[in-house]
Amino acid sequence: MILANLADSGEELVADSHLLPATMVGQKAGDKIREYVTSDTSPTATIVFRGTVIGNSPAAPRVAAFSSRGPNHLTPEILKPDVIAPGVNILAGWTGSTGPTDLAIDLRRVEFNIISGTSMSCPHVSGLAALLRRAHSKWTPAAIKSALMTTAYNLDNSGKIFTDLATGEESTPFVHGSGHVDPNRALDPGLVYDIETSDYVNFLCTIGYDGDDIAVFVRDSSRVNCSERSLATPGDLNYPSFSVDFTSDSNGVVKYKRVVKNVGGDSNAVYEVKVNAPSAVEVSVSPAKLVFSEENNSLSYEISFTSKRSEDIMVKGIQSAFGSIEWGDGIHSVRSPIAVRWRYQSAVSM
Fold first, then answer.
1. 231-254 tens-digit pLDDT
2. CA gap 3, 161 in Å, rounded
3. CB atoms near residue 332 (< 10 Å)
């Protein structure tokens, strides 16, 4: 069998197990094979096992075609995905209760199998979370997530932004989130964006849940009064990334608030912000410098996003843009991606 990719999978090759002799090819080779099969009255093919062939490797890492994509359609103010991790062609221990294809008719038994999917990237990130929890026993789950996100990287080993295997083009934060996890850097992130249970309750109230619904999450039999607790916007949840939706209601300006906690070795650290603004967006951060101390290890800031030339944006068909902010103290780099979308009903003059 020849298993040929369609456009959605592009040139990504996944080492699936098969019950019969088979090979997999990317979309380009698949298109040529299909053309040959339909143009020749007696098409033939031969599979030749050549063993390991060593050649120039493509830049890595790259984002799998099957990887989950943004934007977040339910809550557009929260950027998804968060991070990416190894998940393609992972050699892992395999159960002896089923064959490598996981089919009932597959009677083969192996100790190891090559598996791909988000179910393979999940244990990598889970293991890193356990590592961080061991190293920092007082960190909350939100602090651990923040450390993984703000220290992630988005450049491959050739110095370019990750390639999206679904399109062959550069990936964006709607594809790779904050980037690829980096365990060594995550152990010492410098700053973390922490979130407490009450913050999540306020967030759920803001996006439309009522007290009875929220009681299921907080295990509280008493009703949560959402009229007394909500955020100005869902985007005010203390998340380590920024997702901005410019709509007719926003009037071209979106503001979010954030709080960062100093978890580095220097309690008197001073962080300054570096802004990489998305195209056609003005980004301002106030204050632009955070001065921590032993008495004050958590500081807040406000970030404002102002849309520019919105009418031109609609004419040119630009629907999204991306950037980042980065807090640095000379030792740590605390990076948060910015994803912006314009969703005006029609062209709007600013």
1. 999 999 999 999 999 987 778 899
2. 29
3. 23
The enclosing H or E element of 115 equals: strand 112-115
Name beta bridge partners: 285: 303
* pLDDT score of 348 more than 80: no
Measured between alpha carbons, how far is 81 from 153 in angstroms, rounded to an integer? 14
Give the number of other CB atoms < 10 A from CB of residue 253. 12
Burial classification of residue 348, based on how many CB atoms lie within 10 Å of its CB (0-12 exposed, 13-18 middle, 19 or more buried): middle
| Residue 21 in this model has a pLDDT that exceeds 90 | no
User: Tokens 């921590």 sit at which residue?
Assistant: 292
List all residues 6 or more positions away from 22 whose beta carbon is below 8 Å from its beta carbon. Answer: 1, 2, 3, 47
**DSSP symbols for 83-94:** -B---SSEEEE-
Read off the pLDDT of residues 29-50 as tens digits, 9 standing for 90 and up.
Answer: 999 999 999 999 999 988 888 8
* CA atoms of 248 and 261, how far apart (whole Å): 34
pTM assigned to the model: 0.90
Can you read off the two tokens belonging to residue 140? 């909350």
Question: In which residue are the tokens 């099969």 written?
Answer: 37
**DSSP secondary structure, 131-144, as one string:** HHHHH-TT--HHHH
